[in-house]
Amino acid sequence: MACAELQTLNPWHRSEWDAALARSRHAAETGNYVVARQLLDEFSRTHPGTREANETAFWKAAYLVDPANSDGSLAMGIAALDGYLSANPDGMYRVEASVLRRTAATAQGITDRLHTTATDTTTQPVVKDTVVVVNKSRDEQIAALKEQLAASKAELAKVSAELDRIKKRLANPSN
Fold first, then answer.
1. Is residue 37 a part of any domain in this protein?
2. What is the distance between the alpha carbons of residues 175 and 157, in angstroms, rounded to a whole number?
3. Cys staple from 80: which of 50, 61, 168, 174, with CB 3.0 to 4.6 Å?
4. How many domains does the chain have?
5. How far is CA 87 from CA 37, 38, 158, in A?
6. What pLDDT is attached to residue 5?
């Protein structure tokens, strides 16, 4: 006869978790990410080793990738999501964390490309025998940059829409 160990949720912890998560979400929605993180940290401290305490890592990571969080960044959020995914193979928010991580990585790639493009397209005049040679005219460079910016903005809008969809889904997990 085989024995399986099931991790059960303590109903008392569950109601405290629901309350802590609701307070944390409210703080994040009002832009107070420091308080949101502190509320999650306090829950983890008072409920160590519980499944719910492990899930605080997901929410803290999600708050880090939020563009409205001035203390967060895509790189920090991606690292935190990687930590959550590796530490919680059976996490309650594993699918959401994977989607959010891929979305954040895509946004990070777009940001990196924009930064690289902006620094790469600043052409320095090439001086040969006192004659200045420039590869593209200034107007051509501006037009190319505007096209790249428009394409990047469109891609970023798609990523933002996906992040908003994820936020709404996480706000209403029953749907």
1. yes
2. 24
3. 61
4. 1
5. 19, 20, 30
6. 45
Spell out the SS3 assignment of the chain. Answer: CCCCCCCCCCHHHHHHHHHHHHHHHHHHHCCCHHHHHHHHHHHHHHCCCCHHHHHHHHHHHHHHHCCCCCCCCHHHHHHHHHHHHHHCCCCCCHHHHHHHHHHHHHHHHHHHHHHHHHHHCCCCCEEECCEEECCCCHHHHHHHHHHHHHHHHHHHHHHHHHHHHHHHHHHCCCC
| pLDDT of amino acid 118 | 59
Does 108 fall in a domain?
Answer: yes
30 found inside a domain: yes
Write out pLDDT tens, residues 64-94: 999 999 999 999 999 999 999 999 999 999 9
What pLDDT is stored for residue 163 in this prediction?
80
Picking from 53, 27, 58, the residue whose alpha carbon sits closest to that of residue 42 is: 53
Q: pTM of this prediction?
A: 0.62
Task: State which residues form the domain around 42.
Answer: 14-171
